[in-house]
Amino acid sequence: MKRSIGLILTASILLSGCSSAATDTETECVTEEGISSQADTEVSSSETEVSIPETEPSEIEPSDTSKKESHYKYDPHPYIPLLLEDVPEDYWISFHNLSDALRAGEATFECSSQEAYEWATDPVVLGQLMPAACTKITGESNDGTTPYENGLGRIYYQMPPEDFVQREKDFEAMVEDILNGYLEDDDSEFEIALKLYDYMESNYVYNYDFNEYLDDGFTYYAMMNHTGQCIDFAGVYSFLLTQAGVEAISVGCNNIDMAHEWVYLVIDGKGYYSDPTWSLYEYGSLPLYYFLMTEERRVDSGCTVDDLTSPLLPEYWLERSALRLSASDEDLCFPGGSFLDHIDEADRTVYYSIYDDETLELVY
Fold first, then answer.
1. Structural domain contains residue 45
2. What are phi and psi for residue 352, nearest 5 degrees?
3. What is the extent of the structural domain holding 218?
4. 69 HSE (CA, 13 A, CB side)
5. Is residue 211 part of a domain?
6. In whole angstroms, what separates CA 329 from the centre of its chain?
7. Are 120 and 98 in contact, with CB atoms under 8 Å apart?
8. Rounded distance, CA 258 to CA 247, Å?
9. How many domains does the chain have?
10. How far apart are CA 283 and CA 97, in angstroms?
């Protein structure tokens, strides 16, 4: 069944309740008495709008793209093999057709089935895979026409199609600037993940004002304004990882005891959890404890992993899917209190310190 934007906003309110100032050994996520409707949700007096301050300089220097040809190009056909059992190949092909049609401002696209149409036009799927389209197109008819029939899906624009095409072009150019500014052609999956994690810490601040997001889609708004909450940061990080060729999805715990969202990613065939929200410290150096985590560390930090959700799954909940996540490898995990000093990419070594103490090494 197609998920409505109302459901997404409601779930997002719950998932976005995490504080931006955690210790290295525990998170401070807001608990909820179940999922309330948007109308019933009130922002507490302690949650005020946060202005966007000047960001601290990055420990990983962005590349000087003015001196070389851009190497990363926006990929309009994202694909995540991890989800193949739940999101079959024809769904992905249908989404790629939709992406091509949207980039050209067209009104229809080839689609394999009603189910594929509903997944491809789902606002959550769009927010994760084509953020500029979230809330700006819909698969629900507004003119009496049938949304899907005979292998053809209709696109219902919520803004003039020519304006959407320009919006998408501008967004794609921004994504390419980010990737080309932080990544190199020969970066390994580990280096891509770390550099984009550093990008998150260096460019984003936490924002408690949820209502700003409602008209623009969460990932898109966060990327355009460099601010957001846990659901937004997970969406941004997983989107950029996918664009850079690293398999990644947003996941979250969404129950009465805990509400938070982060990222599951695959590095050299091994799964890890990574939490970009907890990269947003104000110590002037990149914290590494939450960068690549095992399942055990994720649980110890206060987030359950036995009842997870993932926005790209057709039925949202992992327990209703074939997807089973594994994160047990400790080779790339950093101790508590670890902060990045620098990377020696030639020697494949990360140098880090624990609370400004002696410098340690991790060979990847």
1. no
2. -145, 160
3. 172-363
4. 2
5. yes
6. 22
7. yes
8. 26
9. 1
10. 45
What is the rounded CA–CA span in Å between residue 9 and residue 4?
A: 9
Does residue 183 fall inside a structural domain? yes
Contacts of 102 (CB under 8 A, 6+ apart): 130, 133, 137, 155, 164, 165, 168
Residues in the chain: 364
On whether residue 337 sits in a domain, the answer given is yes
**SS3 state of residue 128:** helix
Own/partner long-range contacts of 44-48 (Cβ < 8 Å, ≥24 apart): 47/208, 47/209, 48/208, 48/209
Query: In this structure, what token pair is assigned to residue 187?
Result: 């970066």
In angstroms, the CA 88 to CA 313 distance is 11
Q: Are 218 and 123 in contact (CB under 8 A)?
A: no
Cα–Cα dist 28/47, whole Å: 14
The closest alpha carbon to 206, from 220, 187, 225, belongs to: 225
pLDDT tens by residue, 108-160: 999 999 999 999 999 999 999 999 999 999 999 989 999 999 999 999 999 99
Report how far residue 37's alpha carbon sits from residue 139's, in angstroms, rounded to the nearest whole number: 23
Render 317-364 in DSSP notation, one character per residue.
BGGGSS--------TT---TTEEEEEEETTTTEEEEEETT-SEEEEE-
Please give the structure tokens belonging to residue 134: 């979230």
On the CB side of 321, CA atoms within 13 Å amount to 22
Q: Longest Cα pair distance anywhere in the chain, in angstroms?
A: 68
Q: Give me the amino acid identity at 299.
A: V
Total-model pTM: 0.83
Report whether 349 contacts 360 (CB < 8 A): no
In this structure, what token pair is assigned to residue 31? Answer: 């608990």
pLDDT band, very low/low/confident/very high, at 176 (cuts 50, 70, 90) = very high
Residues 6+ apart with CB under 8 A from 207: 49, 50, 227, 228, 229
Domain of 277: which CATH number?
A: 3.10.620
Only one residue has tokens 């059992």, namely 85
Determine the pLDDT at residue 357: 84
Of the chain, the percentage scoring pLDDT greater than 70 comes to 79
Q: Distance between CA 247 and CA 263 in Å, rounded?
A: 10
